[in-house]
Amino acid sequence: MSRYVAAIDQGTTSSRCILFDHSGPVASAQKEHGQIYPRPGWVEHDPLEIWYRTQEVVAEAMAKAGARAEDVAAVGIANQRETVVVWDRTTGRPLHNAIVWSDTRTAELCDRYAAETSPGGKGGQDRFRAATGLPLATYFSAPKLRWLLDNVAGLDEMARSGRAAFGTIDSWLIWNLTGGVAGPGRPGGAHVTDVTNASRTMLMNLRTLDWDDELLGAFGVPRAMLPRIVSSIDRNAWGYTMDDGPFAGRIPVCGCLGDQQAALVGQACFSPGESKNTYGTGCFMLLHTGTTPVVSSSGLLTTVACRVNDEPATYALEGSIAVAGSLVQWLRDALGLIVTSPDIEPLAASVPDNGGVYFVPAFSGLFAPHWRSDARGIIAGLTAFAGRGHLARAVLEATAYQTRDVLDAMRKDSGVSLATLRVDGGMAVNDTLMQFQADVLNVPVVRPKVTETTALGAAYAAGLATGFWKDFAALRAAWHEDKTWTPRMDDAKRDKLLAGWAKAVERSMGWA
Length: 512
Hints:
By secondary structure, the chain is an alpha+beta fold. It has helices spanning 47-65, 107-115, 129-132, 141-151, 155-161, 169-177, 195-198, 213-219, 259-266, 325-333, 344-348, 388-414, 431-441, 453-466, 472-478, 491-509; strands at residues 4-10, 14-21, 24-32, 44-45, 72-79, 84-88, 98-99, 164-168, 192-194, 204-205, 210-211, 228-230, 239-240, 252-258, 275-279, 283-290, 301-306, 314-321, 358-360, 378-380, 421-424, 445-448, 481-485. The strands form seven sheets. The chain has a seven-stranded mixed β-sheet. Helix 9 packs across helix 14 and helix 10 runs antiparallel to helix 12.
């Protein structure tokens, strides 16, 4: 009997492979990949580097566990969402660098689409929201793909003939893991994407769970280049890893979730009203809303949470924040105020409060709930009293304030008041931030024992598909609390801080 499930967690800055058994993580490996900035606001990745790093971490994790392919029941994928890859099916070579989710080069293109009206007479930023649950924004995949079709010589023709393949990072990895280029004795890789990733492209209809002809027509995307949409947890494997691949044997690939939906599963949020917040490069709060998509009127995204085999899909409301952990990296790399990222906590804790300083990190504009691509990052409230500690504290607090904005929008849209917020991601180990988060939300914040919930969700998806885990009840039983932070800030202080934050955000949006 197989002892493990393998999870590949391909994120914005690194790729990881973690092997899980029934009790938790057994072995892991992680490698960073390069960030490419061709112009201000442009962010790219090298898809081949991502594939190479993925192979390396798989081999390393397998070696650490002393595992062979027959020891692994299934492979699950979690991935950075919205990032776009196009490649040549006949050579396996990317036709351009991947355009990353935070890239803003399509701002003018999005403005043009918003200025037009659809055949149904709908225009503006919400032109496609009824079908997709998404506002027109640089964040999503369709405008990025349209930019590639317009700017990569010969791509449009290759796309129409089916030679060029489009995918988000999950599609790129699954295609390579399951065979890649077809050849003698090799049928070629599976070209698929799961419903959670497809729901972030702005090309899938939320209700039909299929590519939408009106959306394809509006963006001029040939259907021939698109992957097949599959369930997140699928008893019918989409393909098998290869004998000459990083797993060195045949293992079914049958679980896939966008990273934030994977974290929702990893946090055992399976029922309506349950919520999690992931503090990574960005910050992403999801609220499970059940089998009916809830349309937001408050700047949130309506997205697919998960689909199990042929069962009805479940949905979530999401608040997406572009800059969270990356702001700490900016403080480290661009300003040199800290040497390592963990150094921010003692520096921030060296002062009792923010000294009136607020940092709005609108480096890619503001995402939820504002969706203002013209917003710019600002530091407000500086006086001669402010020092390094106050700036460090303002950097941490920015993530908590943005999360509060998202929670307010969720309450308005759903009518749900959270009893607790489950947290995960790299910044969730920062006790100072987590306490402030509980204070500014006025809600207890709970961290699980296994904080690598994105990889865990991918493992759960693949393990449920193959029977390694029996059902969701078994996963609930496996979730354990590590630490809880309870609110201890008085209402008057909280209100004063939130008023200062609101002023800073207003100035950020009025900058352009």
